[in-house]
Amino acid sequence: MAVSSAPGKVYLFGEHAVVYGEPAVPCAIERRATVTVERRDDDALRVQADDLSLDGFTVEYGGPRDGHPDIDVPQPLIRAAMGYVDGAIEQVRDVTGESDVGFDVTIESEIPLGAGLGSSAAVVVAAIDAATRELGLTLETEELADRAFQTEYAVQEGQASRADTFCSATGGAVRVEGDDCRSLEAPSLPFVIGFDGGAGETGELVAGVRSLREEYDFAAQTVETVGDLVREGEAALEAGDIEEVGRLMNFNHGLLSALGVSARSLETMVWAARDAGALGAKLTGAGGGGCIVALDPTPEAETALRFTPGCEDAFRAELAEEGVKRLE
Ligand SMILES: Nc1ncnc2c1ncn2[C@@H]1O[C@H](COP(=O)(O)OP(=O)(O)OP(=O)(O)O)[C@@H](O)[C@H]1O
Ligand SMILES: C[C@@](O)(CCO)CC(=O)[O-]
Ligand SMILES: [Mg+2]
């Protein structure tokens, strides 16, 4: 048996634009997905993921003597739900050369699904790491990050950056621009997260930005402007100027709204945090619903978010210095 965990992340700057080659700065947070993997005697894959629920399916069966219920779950729903784990195991079979190895996989996660905190990347990184180690192979962090990226790239149909998976594999604050991935020195950042209890579909949101870019030059320019902003943000981080980091996060949120990936609940939480004195607040990750991230060294923004209608949970998040953790 092998057990690995990997952290989720928030974006200080640059989500979406990073898909088109602009730089981005995600930071790993101490909320983890833990994956336990045990090799099977056959080539089957059995996944236990208690946090994953499939809405709206029907089961037909002929009563106790029939024994074989026919479960009617729409294919796209299954692909969306299982694609990341299936893809991770495909990468493991490929890198180890054991093309028909089977596994029992158990996923436990503290990261809400589809909420912008990088649950997919954390699950994929932890699953690849645990399953390769179960077969006696320990991957270097770069290779692990690359295999995890290939998984997200395939599931998101060619519309994914290396940002989430590199950040989850290495931990800390990172900078990703195209294939160039590196760790960043960052000052201590007082993250506060607000969660609306909902989710957005990463693939669909990325596709929405893509078509806006194709339709309007000014949308393509907005994406480039995000890149300019990220470069300013890096300078502010290097100078340890977190007030400037906050101002730039506000600006980045405005550009993401213009690109159509915000939501009423995200706007409400962003403004609740700002009104409470946060240095900055923006949506994080793909958007459409899910989480915002604010910077606030005081307890005010977290308290305000707790009392904001539509905010289901508010919590502080520490930077995760360590990426993948090998637990067993
Ligand atoms: N605990 C889990 N168990 C099983 N699968 C999970 C789990 N957490 C995430 N996943 C997989 O990841 C998918 C969600 O990934 P998606 O990229 O849409 O959101 P996210 O990674 O949480 O947010 P973002 O990419 O915006 O940061 C789920 O549909 C599921 O396939
Ligand atoms: C929206 C996006 O930029 C971040 C999702 O967390 C997609 C990606 O980078 O793959
Ligand atoms: Mg994701």
UniProtKB/TrEMBL annotation:
Organism's domain of life?
A: Archaea
Q: What are the record's GO terms for cellular component?
A: cytosol
Give the transmembrane ranges: none
**What are the binding positions for ATP in this chain?**
P112, L113, G114, A115, G116, L117, G118, S119, S120, A121, A122
Write out the pathway annotation from the protein's UniProt entry.
Isoprenoid biosynthesis; isopentenyl diphosphate biosynthesis via mevalonate pathway; isopentenyl diphosphate from (R)-mevalonate: step 1/3
What are the record keywords, sorted? ATP-binding, Cytoplasm, Isoprene biosynthesis, Kinase, Lipid biosynthesis, Lipid metabolism, Magnesium, Nucleotide-binding, Transferase
Domain GHMP kinase N-terminal, by residue range, is 84-172
Q: Which residues form the Galactokinase N-terminal domain?
A: 3-38
Instruction: Show the InterPro entries listed in the entry.
Output: Galactokinase, GalKase_N, GHMP_kinase_C_dom, GHMP_kinase_C_sf, GHMP_kinase_N_dom, GHMP_knse_ATP-bd_CS, Mev_gal_kin, Mevalonate_kinase_arc
Chief place where the protein resides? cytoplasm
Keyword Cytoplasm in record: yes
Q: Which GO terms describe its biological process?
A: galactose metabolic process; isopentenyl diphosphate biosynthetic process, mevalonate pathway
Which HAMAP family does this UniProt record tie to the protein?
Answer: Mevalonate_kinase (MF_00217)
Family listed: Belongs to the GHMP kinase family. Mevalonate kinase subfamily.
Function of the molecule: Catalyzes the phosphorylation of (R)-mevalonate (MVA) to (R)-mevalonate 5-phosphate (MVAP). Functions in the mevalonate (MVA) pathway leading to isopentenyl diphosphate (IPP), a key precursor for the biosynthesis of isoprenoid compounds such as archaeal membrane lipids.
* Name listed for the protein in its UniProt record: Mevalonate kinase
Source organism per entry reads: Natronosalvus hydrolyticus
